[in-house]
Specification:
Layout: H1 3-12, H2 21-33, E1 37-44, E2 47-54, E3 60-66, E4 84-86, E5 89-91, H3 99-108, E6 117-122, H4 130-135, E7 145-150, E8 165-170, E9 172-181, H5 196-206, E10 214-215, E11 219-220, E12 222-230, E13 241-250, H6 256-272, E14 281-286, E15 297-298, H7 304-316, E16 321-325, H8 330-338, E17 342-344, E18 349-350, E19 358-360, H9 361-377
Parallel strand pairs: 3-6, 3-7, 7-17, 8-16
Antiparallel strand pairs: 1-2, 2-6, 4-5, 5-19, 8-15, 9-13, 9-14, 10-11, 12-13, 18-19
Length: 378
């Protein structure tokens, strides 16, 4: 089966996050036909990661992919689960993120049976990365992995995938909560209380002054208010509680914990400067979720395997382009958990997380060539 046919089959399987069972069963079957031994790691009933390996050797090459997609938003000409070709473009949910990369990987793995290769396929990447965080707990399985390849497009402000576009770093992300406590009073005498909405508004405006780091390649961090909730207990009471949530994109050397501390510093400085009313109490913490937030990472570009990869792409395809992802992915988790090089190489991408998602057939075929070079030469 050619790569387009593999992708057509993958797209036909609804694998919106939380519903990865059918595609997991299909991919497990294909990997076994390619000579891999496989096992499942369950996250919940019907939801599992796949660990696969074949070949012998003291060091292994690992391919990574996630099996889930986002929800099918908006209108589609053929529907999200039917692959449609128009010229070089292949349309379908997950066509580029990331069933296209998985299809190219499966095609490339038809060769290279004489070396040790591992494949990790995870669920839930498009949600809270429960699959990847569960997978990395099995540290012994990763013990012989020397080099990792993620089949994501690696989109950024400058590039949206391509077999010659090598993503070697990504920004991180954290959500920070700030609970603001004022003092209730009768609305007829607001001067006797502290309006929590007023104080929260001052914090929102002051958040523009939070110290943001800048990285040569990943750009400048950003922070925005993603939620604000406040209310009175009755129609006549001054609101004495407000809840804020900040979403912060991080670059090295920032971490999620460091970002929380910077918001705490902002609040302390506002109190010292009298920019919050005396008696206002603000608590700041990382927003709870079942999995950790994701720190940024940057590969070591002096690693000999990355240097060799760039040389192979230059000789076998075209001049490679180093890229740095604008958003987080499971790639961050793998890079930060093991401190080993991971490169992200996926097909040309369009309309990610939007209706009429597409990828380029030409780029898929080029990706098969690049993955083949990695299998045979790195």
């Amino acid at each position: 089966m050619e790569v387009e046919g593999i992708l057509e089959r993958l797209v036909s399987i609804n694998s919106i996050f939380g519903n990865e069972k059918a595609i997991g069963e299909y991919l497990e079957s294909r990997l076994r036909r390619l000579g891999f031994s496989t096992r499942r790691q369950y996250l919940a009933p019907g939801r599992f990661n796949i660990f696969a390996e074949r070949g012998v050797g003291s060091r292994s090459l690992m391919f990574y992919g996630h099996m889930d997609t986002v929800t099918a938003h908006g209108k589609w000409k053929k529907g999200p689960f039917g692959l449609r070709r128009e010229g070089d473009r292949l349309y379908g949910l997950g066509a580029c993120d990331m069933k296209g990369g998985i299809a190219a990987m499966l095609k490339a793995l038809e060769s290279g049976r004489d070396r040790k290769i591992k494949v990790l396929l995870c669920a839930d990447e498009e949600n809270i990365s429960k699959g990847a965080w569960t997978a990395v707990k099995e540290r012994r399985w990763f013990g012989d992995v020397a080099f990792m390849v993620s089949c994501e497009p690696g989109d950024s402000k400058r590039h949206n995938g391509g077999a010659h576009v090598i993503t070697v770093g990504r920004r991180g992300r954290v959500v920070i909560e700030a609970d603001v406590y004022g003092l209730s009073s009768h609305g007829a005498n607001p001067q006797r209380g502290i309006n929590a909405i007023d104080e929260a508004s001052r914090i929102v405006l002051a958040s523009r002054a939070i110290r943001l780091r800048e990285h040569k390649e990943l750009g400048k961090e950003n922070i925005f208010v993603r939620d604000i909730v406040a209310r009175s207990d009755s129609a006549l009471d001054l609101p004495d509680r407000a809840h804020l949530e900040f979403d912060m994109q991080l670059v090295p050397p920032s971490t999620a914990r460091d970002a929380v501390e910077r918001v705490n510093i902002l609040i302390r400085n506002m109190h010292r400067a009298g920019k919050l009313r005396e008696g206002t109490v603000v608590t700041v913490k990382m927003k709870k979720r079942p999995t950790p937030y994701i720190d940024p990472y940057i590969d070591n570009l002096h690693d000999p395997r990355i240097i060799k990869l760039l040389s192979l792409i230059k000789s076998g395809l075209r001049n490679p382009v180093l890229n740095y992802g604008s958003s987080v992915a499971d790639d961050n988790i793998l890079a930060n958990s093991f401190g080993r090089p991971i490169v992200t190489i996926g097909p040309v991408a369009g309309n990610l997380h939007a209706p009429e998602e597409w990828t380029s057939l030409k780029s898929l075929r080029e990706l098969v060539t690049v993955y083949g070079l990695i299998i045979s030469r790195i």
